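Bug #77: duplicate submission created two jobs. Keeping one. Sequence:
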Amino acid sequence: MFLGEFSCLAAFYILLCRDRHRAEPSLAPAQPFNPLLFLPPALCDMTGTSIMYVALNMTSASSFQMLRGAVIIFTGLLSVAFLGRKLVPSQWLGILVTMAGLVVVGLADMLGTRDETHKLSEVITGDLLIIMAQVIVAIQMVLEEKFIYKHDVHPLRAVGTEGFFGFVILSLLLIPMYYIPAGSFGGSPRQVLEDTLDAFCQIGRQPLIALALAGNISSIAFFNFAGISVTKEISATTRMVLDSLRTVVIWAVSLAVGWETFHGLEILGFLILLTGAALYNGLHQPLLARLPWRRPPAGALGSEAERENLLGGERAPINGDS
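Kept job's structure:
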């Protein structure tokens, strides 16, 4: 994952080098900033993703993706506490609706354990771990928003810097993990926390694993760059809509290949979560603005000159003033 993010840094410098050789550079000069600012978001990314990957082994892929919608709750609360943002009533309503959606998805997850793929205790533990991880992900998002907007960091550079820190830290952690005993939890022949040499042997003997890793690296690189670009250039609302489409695709593929069974409550839970996300991100406002009783009358603001005065426009010349 971090190798995919780290590759964005190389792409940034290639893009910067090509831009400098143009007659009219399109990239604005970057403001100086300390790269260590992105170390805390990288640590949050590493911790939150590790917890979610452990939880993914205890629950289904669709529930894993849907429960990640809990990040809206914690992001909103942390934005109020640390960014000084004031949430409007529709955003508070979106948080409450999201909480209701999480309850429905969790209930569907527990009722769907009849196939005995996962034990009920594992499902509950996995769901709770996913929701707990969203607290860490919310901290990461708040930190990213603060640093990217404050220093006007290019999205490729931001993602690549986080990937660099995460890749270096995890690479160093692989050394002690190779010797730390973990019993059956490690899942390796030596029963250690992480057997790196055995992992490389598996990659060499099974080309399908190498293909999956290459796909994971490239998809994460494009996904993170696209997500931050959409947030910076368009809006978080658009990113929310696109992320919801990802949930539908994951669920559809899981059902198609037979990795999980269909449960009607998951549809209800997903729709509730989508409604909560839409309310929080203000997706309902353009729809309400189109209602007839929400539009002002044609002459409500008076003439063009009066509207300019209301908006603080320039004063029209009077009595020969120039």
